[in-house]
Amino acid sequence: MNFRNKLKSLAQWTEVWPAQKTDEMSKIAKLAISQGWYLNEVFIFSLYRDYSKEEINFSDFMKNLIFSEWDQHWESIKRVEPSRASIFDEAKHCFESEYYSAAIHLFFSQSDGIFHDQFDKSLYKKEGERARDEISTYITDFISKDSLEILFSQYKDASILSRMFNEVYTSMFSEVATDAIKDINPSDPESNLVIPNRHGVLHGFHKNYGNKTNALKCFTMLLFVLYTIHGDKMLTDSNI
Hints:
This protein is mostly helical and 240 residues long.
């Protein structure tokens, strides 16, 4: 299913969406982070719609979901961050050439750079606590759980996506000191991590993170940052 159909289905879904869905989505998003995957609104919707129909584990589902729109993801990324387009081209090339360690380095650094451009703060500083505090003031148009029908009638375009998922994104940023963000020592075992740790990767403490699954997990983190900042700009006619 392409992005246009997803948006159409999502519009129909929200008309009958019970208020507790936001809380449920927040719990699912946090559970995904605990397994090393960062969700965005498209991923969460697809998870709700399709995962119960699939007889595969969560990681395999996420991989299939990412690859189903692989090129479109990169088109969106470059459109909203054009000054970084050449770096993104290198990152995509690294992944597709199976240079997974190099791709992970770029995914981590660009996630931080994009966040820093917006907030003048590091995504990783103080184990993500500063990022959480900054995002809590940045995202102000939370969806009212008691006013979903009213909001839906007011926002019939793709901007409804950002408004619907603001609470979920904020709750995800509240998950500070996750494996990707926490500070570590050189002696901390890499094998205990569910996702590469950016400190261990960028400072050369860790050596065994370069595989396809880990690269995809770090890619979802990059997408998460982009969706949080750019919202519906990630979903325009050029990729839906």
